[in-house]
Write a structure and sequence with these properties.
heterodimer; A: about 230 residues; mainly alpha; MetI-like fold; 10 helices; flat; B: alpha/beta; 6-stranded mixed beta sheet; about 35% helix; globular; binds adenosine-5'-triphosphate; binds magnesium ion; Ectoine/hydroxyectoine ABC transporter permease subunit EhuD (chain A); transmembrane transporter activity (chain A)
Chain lengths: ~230, ~280
């Protein structure tokens, strides 16, 4: 049983139809991770122990257990507590929550990279805490993290096949279904691999360009001193 | 340029340090400092590295908390406040109110790199003093003109020289009209040829009078020009103080003599320093 071009072409349209749902799960999960990651980073850095400790513990737990276990838990265990979600919703929440713990670390490193002098100047000018965060610290801590965020977006995209475990019909499940109908798996799985490559590679290339660009800007700023 | 004005001897102090101590762990950085600064008075702090000069200023700017002792600003406690007739630790609201009378310029400028020059200067006027934007902008422009940077308002800090950055930082602090301004070695990070332009701006500001100044500096000539009083700190204490001529030319304590002699040796070939130290 060798590669059959005609067959391969014939299944391409069906595979392409699974792309939107794969992308949607990735993007929605990513947006959720970005939104959750920031308050999580702030909570972890907080001086209020009752806030920082539990959040740190929960984040550590989520980060150190496999995504697939979390997905199974949300999809198969939560319904016994009366919480029933569709595969897509579960997938987005699972991905988003899991990666928010990584993005929180990214945000944190961005925040920590803001020089102490920026905080001190804000204090000397009598800015409120909120103003210092929103207008001085965050605008300086987010841009340098953009390339790393981009990398996580790609990682999350490549993680979507895990969602097949909770019956979400994304690329991998579609390929498996095609394969099981015709008993030909070679073409379907190869094509899925190629599709992932075609979509990931340009994104990775873009992220790298962005990184170089931001790096150059950073160096220019640094060479003039702050 | 003679910038000194008569300081009212009897006026109540704008800042009063009373028995201020600061320790990091068991390292005593400031040891029972008593210091009164009168309104409009210009004081210069000199002393060896690690003697506590910066810490003294940072305690007043509320960047650091004293271990013991009190600081009063314009007759009001800085780090403490009254609640139900008892003196308790100041909350952020109290600090915010008292801090409004204090300004600071840092050695490393600490401009906001993501804001252009005019926004760096305006930001606190708009968001702390809540001035209308147009008025804040007009006042900021006026201030930038005073420091000679009116044509740079839409540049970003990274596009300026060190001397220009420091002048922006001075404008940014001045525009808030503090009662006392702290300058912590504001020329130490600059290339030698850029020091003059910054000192000139400060002299110019000093000549206008009303605002008190605390100048931490290694520029003895400058201290002598500007200061009403020079204080020599060593080991967390104010060892000697008095008019610049007395401190710089007729030091009494051995430690000050040693400091000035070392200083002279270190900058031995600089005529400025020789003059300042009185050894021409
Ligand atoms: N955050 C800190 N933690 C521990 N020690 C500190 C801290 N800040 C300052 N110190 C110590 O306090 C002492 C006084 O420091 P300070 O910066 O006030 O000295 P200075 O007179 O300004 O010296 P310089 O001329 O070098 O600026 C130093 O020995 C310094 O190491
Ligand atoms: Mg210092």
């Amino acid at each position: 049983m060798w590669w059959d071009w005609n067959y391969a072409w014939s299944i391409v349209p069906e595979l392409l139809r699974a792309i939107p749902i794969t992308l949607a799960a990735t993007l929605e999960g990513f947006v959720l991770a970005c939104l959750l990651g920031l308050p999580m980073a702030l909570a972890k850095r907080s001086q209020l122990r009752w806030l920082s400790w539990p959040v740190t513990a929960i984040a550590e737990f989520i980060r150190c257990t496999p995504l697939i276990i979390q997905l199974f838990f949300y999809y198969y265990a939560l319904p016994s507590f009366g919480i029933v979600m569709s595969a897509m919703t579960t997938g987005v929440i699972g991905l988003g929550l899991h990666y928010s713990t990584y993005l929180a670390e990214v945000y944190r490193s961005g925040i920590d990279s803001v020089p102490r002098g920026q905080w001190e100047a804000s204090r000397a000018l009598n800015f409120s805490r909120g103003h210092t965060w929103l207008r001085i610290v965050l605008p300086q801590s987010v841009p340098p993290t953009i390339p790393v965020m981009g990398n996580y977006l790609i990682v999350m995209f490549k993680e979507t096949p895990t969602l097949s475990a909770i019956t979400l019909v994304e690329l991998l499940t579609t390929a498996k279904n095609i394969g099981s109908q015709s008993f030909r798996y070679l073409e379907a799985f190869t094509l899925v691999g190629i599709l992932f490559l075609i979509m990931s590679y340009p994104s990775a290339w873009l992220v790298r360009k962005l990184e170089v660009h931001l790096g150059r800007r950073e160096r220019r700023a640094a060479s003039h001193g702050r | 340029m003679d910038v000194k004005r008569k300081v009212e001897e009897s006026a109540p102090p704008i800042v009063r340090y009373k028995g201020i101590s600061k320790a990091y762990g068991d390292h005593q950085v400031l040891d029972h400092i008593d210091l009164d600064i009168r309104p409009g008075e210009k004081i210069a702090l000199i002393g060896p590295s690690g003697s506590g000069k910066t810490t003294l200023a940072r305690l007043l700017m509320t960047l650091e908390k004293p271990t013991s002792g009190t600081i009063e600003v314009n007759g009001e406690q800085l780090w403490h406040m009254e609640r139900k007739g008892k003196l308790v630790e100041a909350d952020e609201k109290h600090l915010h109110r008292v801090r409004g009378q204090i300004g600071m310029v840092f050695q490393h400028f600490n401009l906001f790199p993501h804001m252009n020059i005019i926004r760096n200067v305006m930001e606190a006027l708009v968001h702390v003093q809540k001035l209308p934007k147009a008025e804040a902008e007009a006042r900021s422009l006026e201030m930038l003109e005073r420091v000679g940077l009116k044509d740079r308002t839409h540049h970003y800090p990274s596009q300026l020289s060190g001397g220009q950055k420091q002048r922006v930082a001075i404008a940014r602090a001045l525009v808030m009209q503090p009662r006392i301004m702290l300058f912590d070695e504001v020329t130490s990070a600059l290339d030698p040829e850029l020091v003059g332009e910054v000192l000139d701006v400060i002299k110019n500001v000093a000549s206008e009078g009303e605002m008190a100044m605390m100048l931490i500096t290694h520029e003895m000539d400058f201290a002598r020009d500007i200061a009403d009083r020079v204080l020599f700190t060593d080991g967390g204490r104010i060892v000697e103080q008095g008019p610049p001529e007395q401190i710089l030319e007729h030091p009494r304590s051995e430690r000050l003599k040693l400091f000035l002699a070392r200083f002279r040796r270190h900058f031995g070939d600089s005529a400025d320093v020789m003059t300042a130290v009185g050894l021409e």
